[in-house]
Amino acid sequence: MRFNAVHPVLAAVLILALAAPGLAQDKQTFQQWLEHYEAWDRLEKEYARESAAEAPEAILKRAQVYLNLNSPDKALEIIEMTPAFDGELEARRLWLGGQAYRGLGDLTKAVLWYTQASKFMTDDEIKRRFGSEPSLDTIWHDVWLKMYWSYNANHTLTRDSQKEALDLVLSVGRKVWDNEFWNQVSSHINPGQSADDAKTPNQAVSPAVPLVSTEDTQRIAQAMAAISLEKFEDASLLVSDLPQEALLSFWNSILTFLQTGNPPENLNVFLEGNYLKANAFWAGNLLAPYSKSRAEWFLGNPDSAAWTQFRNNLLTMSPADADKAIENELGSMLISEQTSTLLRNFKLALSLSNGDFETASTTWNSINKSTLPICLRLAGVLAFKEHLNKVLPESPAQAYALYPILTALSGAGGQEAHPQTEAPFWTAAPADQLQTLSTAQYPLDRLLLLAYWQQRFAKEPSVALAKRAAYLFDDSSFGINGLLYLADDAVKAKRLQLGAFYLNRIDEPALPANLQMAWLDAKTRLELESGRQATALETYQKMTATGEPIPVMTRLRMALLYQQRREYETAQKELLAMWDARATMTTALQAETLFWLGEGEQAMRNPDKALDYYLKLAWQYPGENIWALTAMYRASLIYEKRGKYETAKRLLTTVVRNAARKEQKEAAQARIEAINNKMGKPEAGAEDALVYPF
């Protein structure tokens, strides 16, 4: 057999093709070839089969593969089960651990692992590695702040080790991102290290006259003691004497929240007075975790009918008689330790609410302050200028959760917890100074930062800022809204697993009604996108049960789902509810609502009602071309079926003339031709539609 010679140009092409990546068999190992095509799952198996699979290099390569597979949990399993290496290999192991924790959403642990990795790197390598990790500068900033706030709330033996960790993270921050923030916070938490520290006190824009007088503070303390006994009317009378409008409004809002769980609807008094922190407190709703239950704020044992009756009897007595009754009970050898604690706490609340500060002070110094209801802790802090750490719960997690609330409320009551590092609670400054106040003058002030981020998010919401809010302010409604924003964004982008991750970070049963609705809405849409229609219907029914307004697009999607399931009457109810709220909808959505209402009536064999919706849509929304023309086409079919051929043809002619899609034009033209065939040729001389039968 004779072979023709290969054309020189073709030969050159073949040579180039063989030299292309992935085809040069003598240049790449199978592992390299798999890595080129990012076949990470196969590559991990190849690494595991190696004879040196337990060698440090192979272990690290396997962990890296799992990170490339977006399986940080498996990568972390390998990393944490591996003993520490030496030098550069240990730096790589710890760095991969940091990346794995970051992939799992645990930013605090990620930063701590990165910090440990830095101990095995040179300064140049630290700057290179840390500087090239995406968004690590903002993460480092936020994690350090959260650690610092946790450190402030820590009154246990671990405080010193926590300070060491803070300093380590700080040192890396200064080394890699040597900016104003890191230099400022360094001087704040390590005063005396610089000769300039003593010369740079914060100069915030504050009211010329303190908003809260000593008398106001005592009155607020009395009111909080009264609330601990659930004497809301007494507390309201005490608060009503506060002279300043903003101060009065703030503490009235506290009373309302503790009674109902609802934050104030109107924050104008704080906005008009430029009280940035007071506005941020409610706009971000730091009390959101207590929206469902305020039991921790009140004194008593609701499970004990005997105690409740005894308490109610005490409340009807004069202060002297009540005090005598309490002392008689405390002198009994038969009462339990729990009842004794309740009685002492009751004595404190009663004496403090009645303005008997001398008796209250004696009781205050003889009780365990860390177990008091929150109202009484705050009352004692204000009345006796107690340090916050003396009243925090023994559990570090509980202390961390309560600390920012007590810090803000004590400041609102006239006693600042951190006068050197935080602006006074009633600082008055224009909103355009928020950035300077929160980033330059008071970078450690939690409420000012919350106010600034709220301002930024309101102007230009973004995924990046929502992530930071969700991490740093996870215990406020602002942080929860950040998670909901992230979930919504992920669902819209069809990244359903990520959307579920964000939703699952939220404690749904504890949410206030408005946030619960947003959570259920995101969950419904997530379930619809996942194809779990039955589950979506169950979630939607929970949404309707809340009584809160339902987002219009979710209602529309559920209405269409009901139509698909042939539950037409239920679908019509949803669509009619949308139509009732049409003033809030775009004209396109109004037109679409009418169309689906017509479709529903047609499916239920109510052509007259369907025709009403179709014609109203075509007349009222001619600019919404796709819906108007489709409605005219549907209406023409009804008229054709009824023998109203001329009306049907007129509608179809408009569809042919205005349709943007070729298929729609052709379908309408086909119907016109079919109608013409049914009508036959017109009789000679016939000029109108009137027919004489004889």
From TrEMBL:
Pfam families the UniProt entry points to: TPR_6
Keyword vocabulary terms for this entry: Signal
The UniProt record lists the keyword Flavoprotein: no
Extent of the signal sequence: 1-24
Domain of life: Bacteria
Protein name: Tetratricopeptide repeat protein
